[in-house]
Design brief:
single chain; 1014 residues; alpha/beta; Transferase(Phosphotransferase), domain 1; disordered C terminus; signal; Guanylate cyclase
Length: 1014
């Protein structure tokens, strides 16, 4: 049921700009094979939003025309009457358009009614969600019936019902305006101002009534930082107003013949308001709906409507705003019927049974469609505002499910939304109350004495703290200076040693430039007279442990033992700070110990936990500041590093950090922790050395071996050593030479493997012979190929698929699809040129010429592409598949490498453009060939083609093209029988009846569709 020629509904639900939406829905139903083997007949009647006409039309459809389902009416009161009658006859009915009454969702009263439009009760839930998000607990509701006698009445009732569900938000005042004149608006706002500052307004979308209201509020002084207006409407697109001619204008524009010149004032006034709406069923994807709108207009001129002369006016140049809901109603019916027939093949006219299968969700033209158990659509509403330049701001969105709302804020900083109010959110109740007599007194006067006393007290505390801090810091500095004077020696107490002057070695350093001069300047003589430093150009033992290929020699440990023996036998008695970092290696690969002495000075140094990993447990417990036994413990830790070729305690691979390890060592106990002795696989270790290391780090100091015991044990591990230094040096040189040889061999193998990987990657990007020339530094000259076949493909409706996916899912989808295609290409003599988004460009016949076989290769590959899509499913959209549109053309091209940075092997010539035109002018699931490709394919043979006829190709004019059907012997043909049209008399109606019942030779309705028979 439709309305036509009815003023006020010509933009939203006009028959001449919406009826063809059912044909678009039918195409989708057939494409998705929801009802295979079923046909549809349509019957159209006009209720004109009149309750009496709707009742008569409903009874006539059910009893006389024997329809299986009803779509309509489009207004609330006619929809209520039609829903009751349909429930009596158990016929499914789908309401859409302006039928916003929430009473239609009462399942007991309407057991067969499915509501595709957005009801105003859900709008009330969205208003409540907005109030709660802004911490508003009350508001006023103003509405008018001017321009629409029905909608705002229903909205007022449903908003009251929504607010009565909870007590957190209340309506403090409800006022009806008989008109939208200045006097009426001011009188209404004056009454409201004593009860509310947040005002929800329901006024008809057209006629400029909202503009008149907001300008009147501004002129009357009711548009300031205290007042905030929310325009609530289920039939609005925010601040954009559509017209019957497909045009759109801003809400603040004056559309009347006599312009008042206040558009800029109106824009600034609307900047202090908000609009709550469902964007008139368009959803968030406006561009997709615009494409749908153009398709609706064009299909109205086709059969069965044939609305050519009557639809010529500008008012029919765009689809009705709710045409998308008509499309989704028919499509939802097909899905519900499909589910019902699977359970009961005879349930095609059982309205209550179909109703039970209508709980679903799908991507509709009017946005995401979710139908609940009560048959009502669960809508999404949007909160629109304006910025300072007049551009829309989408503050948030809310999804309504029954009485629950899921609010999502879409603006990061709420202060940006309140730009016209200095970034401050308005209050539901003013600070001084609605009458202005509840302002609190001046707090400064009331608490002046308390403030002064507190300030004085805080000031005294700050002064006292600063004074104490000064004296504490001063005393610490003096103590530090006193301690530093204790170890200093006065210059006058020093006596120069008289000795024979001699040449200094070049390996000795002193302050200044290194030279053979014995002269020392006066400035640095005092600082350097008694200091000499030896530089070790080799690494430390800590660095040597990383040379995994060098065999560990007990001599390394023996040399460290000699150093310890010297220190233990000297006046120093023990090292105290022995680590692998202070065990250096000289030019003769001999280990030396450094950093000993000056223990009292170094006792004040704060050492990080990492430097204490070699320290004995008793030292960590501060039982002593060092001992010979503690040095033996540190010696054991160093030997463990040499054995495992790792860091101390293998700390890089442990879950504990240095602090935790030190805590466990200090704690001790029966199971005291020690470093792991994981012997490196490249080393040959004497087992006795491992036992010796474990003895060195015994928990009790008395159980650790002395340096003399270490000497005897280490010598016993290498009895063949004669102590000759030169032999030792030569052995080390041979060992390093063999190690270096092995490392060079391994690195060479790794280099070759990496070269192979880079070559494989390069051959995937460029043809092999081109890549070889580029590797040799040669230039690649452009080459002409007289006959090649160029292939283009494109994923059908990729934009819609991408809209359902996240960016990562889009990448994964294309990767899975192109992986399949790349595998198919490998089986053919085809070169993949490039992919751009969902586009795929290939060519056969270059860079290797293959005679006339390039057309054969491209056609075979195209058919394999189509076959591979039969089983391909989108992972995250299991019910959706992927379809291709393929085009091919044969001709000459020029190929060459373009660019220096990231060079590309590109094709040039008109053949590439023509192949692209073949793809863009093709059809989903079809392979489109040019006339030249068809001629060459006819010579090669082996394929079946079908002439498409002459097609106008952009830039080419009229061309005869062909469809590639398949290989010879694999094509199955079907016959198509056309059923003639039959006139029904004075009224031409369409009957909608998907049915599997046998079709008689007599058909009713305005037209009959084509019927396919196998």
């Amino acid at each position: 049921m439709f309305v036509t020629g009815l003023r006020g509904q010509d933009v939203t639900v006009e028959y001449k700009t919406s009826a063809s939406a059912v044909l678009i829905a039918k195409d989708r139903i057939l494409r998705e094979q929801l009802l295979p083997g079923y046909d549809f007949n349509f019957t159209v009647l006009f209720d004109q939003c009149d309750e009496k006409l709707a009742v008569g039309a409903t009874i006539r459809m059910i009893r006389d025309l024997n329809v299986d389902a009803i779509i309509g009416p489009t207004c609330s009161f006619p929809a209520i009457s039609a829903g009751v009658i349909s429930g009596f006859y158990n016929i499914p009915i789908f309401t859409w358009g302006l039928s916003t009454a929430s009473t239609l969702s009462n399942v007991e009263r309407f057991p067969t009614t499915i509501i595709m439009s957005v009801n105003s009760f859900s709008l009330g839930i969205a208003i409540r969600s907005l109030m709660l998000s802004f911490d508003w607990d009350q508001f006023a509701f103003i509405y008018s019936r001017v321009g629409d006698m029905e909608t705002c009445d229903v909205t007022m009732t449903d908003v009251q019902s929504a607010m009565s569900q909870t007590q957190d938000v209340v309506i403090s005042s409800i006022n009806q305006m008989l008109d939208v004149s200045y006097d009426t608006v001011i009188r209404t706002l004056t009454n409201v101002s004593t009860r509310a500052r947040i005002i929800v307004v329901c006024i008809s979308e057209g006629g400029g009534y909202k503009r008149d209201f907001i300008l009147a509020a501004k002129d009357g002084g009711f548009l300031n930082d205290e007042y905030f207006y929310i325009f609530a409407d289920t039939m609005s697109r925010g601040f954009v107003v559509p017209s019957t001619r497909g045009e759109e204008w801003s809400l603040w524009k004056d559309i009347k013949a006599q312009n008042d010149g206040r558009d800029e004032e109106a824009r600034l006034a609307f900047g202090q308001t908000m609009i709550i709406s469902d964007h008139t069923g368009i959803g968030a994807n406006v561009s997709a709906y615009q494409n749908f709108s153009q398709l609706v207009v064009s299909r109205m001129k086709e059969a069965p409507f044939n609305c050519v002369e009557e639809c010529k006016g500008e008012e029919y140049s765009a689809a009705a705003t709710y045409a998308g809901q008509l499309h989704d109603s028919f499509y939802a019916y097909a899905r519900g019927l499909n589910a019902s027939l699977k359970q009961n093949p005879n349930s095609y006219r059982n309205g209550s049974f179909i109703f039970s299968n209508m709980v679903m969700s799908f991507e509709g033209v009017s946005g995401d469609v979710r139908i609940g158990a009560n048959g009502a659509r669960m809508p999404s509403f949007y909160y629109d505002g304006l910025d300072s330049t007049g551009k829309p701001i989408l503050y948030g969105a809310v999804f309504v499910d029954g009485t629950q709302a899921n609010f999502t804020r879409l603006i990061s900083n709420e202060a940006h939304f309140w730009w016209s109010r200095g970034g401050n959110r308005p209050r539901a109740v003013p600070i001084c109350g609605f009458s202005g007599n509840q302002c609190p007194g001046d707090p400064l006067k009331a608490y002046l004495g308390f403030i002064i006393g507190s300030a004085v007290l805080v000031l005294l505390v700050i002064i006292s703290f600063a004074t104490c801090s000064y004296y504490v810091i001063r005393s610490k500095r003096k103590e530090t200076e006193r301690l530093n004077q204790m170890w200093r020696i006065s210059f006058v107490a020093l006596e120069a040693a008289r000795g024979k002057k001699g040449e200094h070695s070049q390996r000795s350093f002193h302050s200044g430039t290194s030279s053979t001069s014995t002269r020392i300047s006066v400035e640095n003589k005092v600082e350097t007279r008694n200091f000499i430093f030896y530089m070790y150009q080799k690494e430390s033992v800590a660095a040597k442990k990383h040379e995994a290929r060098v065999q560990l020699d007990p001599q390394d440990c023996l040399e460290l033992r000699k150093g310890l023996a010297f220190i233990h036998g000297s006046m120093l008695q023990y090292h105290g700070y022995l680590t692998s970092e202070c065990c250096l290696v000289d030019d003769r690969w001999q280990a030396k110990i450094s950093d000993y002495g000056l223990r009292k000075i170094r006792a004040y140094d704060k050492r990080p936990p990492e430097d204490l990993l070699w320290t004995a447990p008793e030292v960590l417990r501060m039982e002593c500041d060092g001992s010979r036994e503690a040095d033996i413990y540190s010696f054991g830790i160093i030997c463990a590093q040499l054995v495992s070729r790792s860091s101390p305690w293998d700390i890089n691979n442990r879950k504990e950090d240095a602090t935790e390890i030190l805590y466990l060592v200090k704690k001790g106990g029966h199971a005291h922790p020690r470093p792991p002795l994981n012997v490196n696989t490249d080393l040959e270790i004497e087992p006795a050395l491992l036992h010796l290391i474990r003895d060195c780090w015994a928990e009790r100091p008395s159980e650790r071996p002395s340096v003399d015991v270490l000497k005897s044990n280490l010598k016993s591990m290498d009895p063949n050593r004669n102590g000759n230094l030169m032999d030792y040096v030569f052995n080390m040189l041979e060992q390093y030479a063999s190690t270096l040889e092995s490392e060079v061999e391994d690195r060479t193998k790794q280099l070759k493997e990496e070269q192979k990987k880079s070559d494989v990657l390069l051959y995937r990007m460029l043809p092999r012979q081109v890549a070889e020339k580029l590797k040799l530094g040669q230039s690649v000259e452009p080459e002409t190929f007289d006959s090649v076949t160029v292939f283009f493909s494109d994923v059908v409706s990729f934009t819609k698929i991408a809209a359902k996916c996240t960016p990562l899912q889009v990448v994964n989808l294309l990767n899975d699809l192109y992986t399949i295609f790349d595998g198919i290409i490998d089986a053919h003599d085809v070169y993949k040129v490039e992919t751009i988004g969902d586009g795929y460009l290939c060519v056969s016949g270059l860079p290797h010429r293959n005679g006339k076989q390039h057309i054969n290769e491209i056609c075979s590959m195209s058919l394999d592409f189509m076959d591979s899509l039969r089983n391909f499913k989108i992972p995250h959209l299991s019910h959706d598949g992927v379809n291709l549109r393929i085009g091919a053309h044969t001709g000459s091209v020029v190929a060459g490498v373009v660019g220096l940075t990231m060079p590309r092997y590109c094709l040039f010539g008109d053949t590439v453009n023509t192949a692209s035109r073949m793809e863009s002018n093709g059809k989903p699931g079809r392979i489109h060939l040019s006339f030249e490709a068809h001629l060459l394919l006819a010579e090669v043979g082996g394929f079946e083609v079908e002439s498409r006829g002459e097609v106008i190709i952009k830039g080419k004019g009229v061309m005869e093209t062909f469809w590639l059907l398949g290989r010879v012997g694999t094509v199955h043909r079907t016959s198509i029988e056309k059923i003639p049209l039959k006139e029904t008399g004075a009224e031409e109606h369409q009957k909608t009846a998907p049915s599997s019942r046998p079709q008689s030779t007599e058909h009713t309705g305005i037209y009959e569709e084509f019927k396919r028979t196998e």
